[in-house]
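DATA CLASS: polypeptide
GOAL: derive structure tokens

***
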Amino acid sequence: MFNEEKIIILVYKLVMKHNNNPLSPHLQIYKWQISSLLSITHRIVGVINLLAITLICFWILSLLLGENSYESIKLFFESFFGKFIVISLCWTFSFHILNEIRHLTWDIGYGFDLKVSKITGILVLAGSFVFTVLFYLIGKNIF
């Protein structure tokens, strides 16, 4: 009688007959919120920080192998790319810590208002850059 494709089309038409909602939001019309961007960034930065902590542990273990193994890592950190990685990791750790403080205030029950959420999101983003600059200046012995 009916094949499966026709049955699926009939059921779809019956179910969707009174439903005027779109099937899914399209990325072209979706308006990004600061909270959604910070949430995605928080997850990505968390994975980067996990990998960074693992590499830092291996770096510390290389100290046990002697001066020769440490020299290669020292040369890497003195290069432009090494300095870029260190400064980037300062930002990722700063961002993650500040965003975790934001989440802890949410766990307590504060900051759910849309205006407060936007303000704290901007503060987290700006604060992470401020802390990164401060850590860089402290590392250069400017303070």
